Amino acid sequence: MDSRDWIRDGLRSVAGGLLAIPLAVLNLPLFVLSVATLILGVVPFLGMVLFPLVTMLVRARANLARRLAGGVGVPIARPYRPLPDGKRLGPWRYYRWILTDPATWRDFAWLVPGAVIGFALGALSLAVPIYGLEGVLLIPLWIWLGTGWYGYGAIWPFDTVGDAFLSLPQGALILAIGLAVAPYLRRFDALFARQLLAPTRNAELRLRVSQLTVTRADAVDAQAAELRRIERDLHDGAQVRLVSLGMTIGLAEEMVETDPAGARKLLAEARETSSAALADLRHLVRGIHPPVLAERGLDGAVRALAMALPMPITVEAALPGRLDTPVESAAYFAIAEALANTIRHSYAHTAKVQVRHTGSLLIMQVSDDGLGGADPTGGTGLRGIERRLAAFDGTMSLSSPPGGPTVVTMELPCASFSPKTTPSSGTA
Q1: Can you give the pLDDT at residue 423?
Q2: Cα–Cα separations (whole angstroms), residue 310 to 286, 343, 375
Q3: Which among 426, 343, 428 is positioned nearest to 381, based on CA atoms?
């Protein structure tokens, strides 16, 4: 790891520790409010009003803890039950829905131990670097100005200026240790939070079923839209040309004896029409499954796609073999759509495509040097990529700050490969 990386990570973790202290303190009044509303729950109607409100605050605090844990590499999914059938509930049913959700009680159980652990680790991740910084910056200055008796680290008290300046290496060492250890302290805090804030096994199964239901609906909608597109392309393209071809050949049959020259002219038109119809069919097939994808695999197909686009595109691919055909097709079209968005909207001069396999994931990244500011809610392109990937349990993330660069990262689960050529890389 580069020295700048661990220093940056350490400073970020120290800032996280500074934030953890007031957040930990906030847990305590939330716990008191939770206990109070549970006690007041025996009062008719009062509990139905106060308990859901306090639960909303507790869930907001727990969700913030989950988000912060994700920032240090410990993702925690939200375990809450969805509303029944997505409907609005009356006060009593809503109160009962929150009361019977196990995640509600796990949030309450986390408040006090989460406060203790969060405060202790936050204070420790903050105190050690501050003490090291004190030795580097403050102690020599104080002693030099003659502030009197003082000590630091292993030297108590300072008897000479030389003793005072011995705090410099001690402070530098303590500061380095504090910055190096702070990320591990933040991660330990996140791992502890995950013990109570993460979904249980049953909750994970419910979330999985809900996710698969949405994914299946999206896949069915996408398949229906694709079938409608194919039907429309056949009806408006190849079918029209074939009908025209049949009529032209019929006229040529009638004229073959009375006007041989005219018949030959009609047959020439028929040949041109048949070539155009064949081109339409090839274009249609290419949109379903490009031949180059079947022949050369994902890396070769992406390279061919990049060469055909009006922009310098660097392609780096490192795959151990051929993917399963459905996964390979989904990956290709996801990259193609991301590149199409780059061409249409980014005002970029260059783009880069990286494809690699890590563990059981196929990771694809499309980046450009354009203006940035891409928004998945602003059009159908990025949403289409999300739906295509979701059908295979894949995900898409977007980084596109104003001014650029834009980076689209797509991940597809895939564990199986068939033998193929060696990995390749280069510029298209």
Answers
A1: 41
A2: 19, 8, 23
A3: 343
Q: What angle do CA 30, 34, 35 make, to 5 degrees?
A: 120
| Secondary structure (3-state) at 44 | coil
Retrieve residue 91's tokens. Answer: 């006060």
- pLDDT in the model for residue 273: 78
**Residues 43, 95: Cα–Cα separation, whole Å:** 14
Instruction: Give the position of tokens 């939770």.
Output: 34
Buried-state track 320-337, b at ≥16 Cβ within 10 A, e below 16: eebbeeebbbbbbbbbbb
- 378/212 Cα distance (integer angstroms): 25
Q: Which CATH superfamily is domain 295-427 in?
A: Histidine kinase-like ATPase, C-terminal domain (3.30.565.10)
The answer to whether 306 touches 315, Cβ cutoff 8 Å, is yes
Q: What CATH fold (topology level) applies to the domain 218-288?
A: 1.20.5
Chain centre to alpha carbon of residue 202: 24
pTM value > 0.70? no
Q: Collect all residues with Cβ–Cβ distance below 8 Å to 339 and sequence separation of at least 6.
A: 305, 306, 309, 313, 351, 353, 366
Q: Answer yes or no: are the C-beta atoms of 128 and 181 closer than 8 Å.
A: yes
Residues 6 or more apart whose CB falls under 8 angstroms from that of 98 comprise 51, 52, 55, 104
What whole-number distance in Å separates Cα of residue 355 and Cα of residue 366? 9
DSSP state letters, 109-132: HHHHHHHHHHHHHHHHHHHHHHHH
Cross-strand pairs, 409: 365, 397
pLDDT means per 10 residues, the chain with 428 residues, are: 74 92 95 88 74 92 92 87 67 82 91 95 94 81 66 75 80 91 94 90 69 63 65 68 78 80 81 76 63 82 87 88 81 88 86 87 90 73 80 83 87 68 44
Read off the DSSP letter of residue 167.
Answer: H
Task: Identify the pLDDT of residue 203.
Answer: 66
Determine the pLDDT at residue 140. Answer: 67
pLDDT at 424: 42
* DSSP string over 264-325: HHHHHHHHHHHHHHHHHHHHHHHHHS-HHHHHHHHHHHHHHHHHHSSS-EEEEEE-SEEPPH
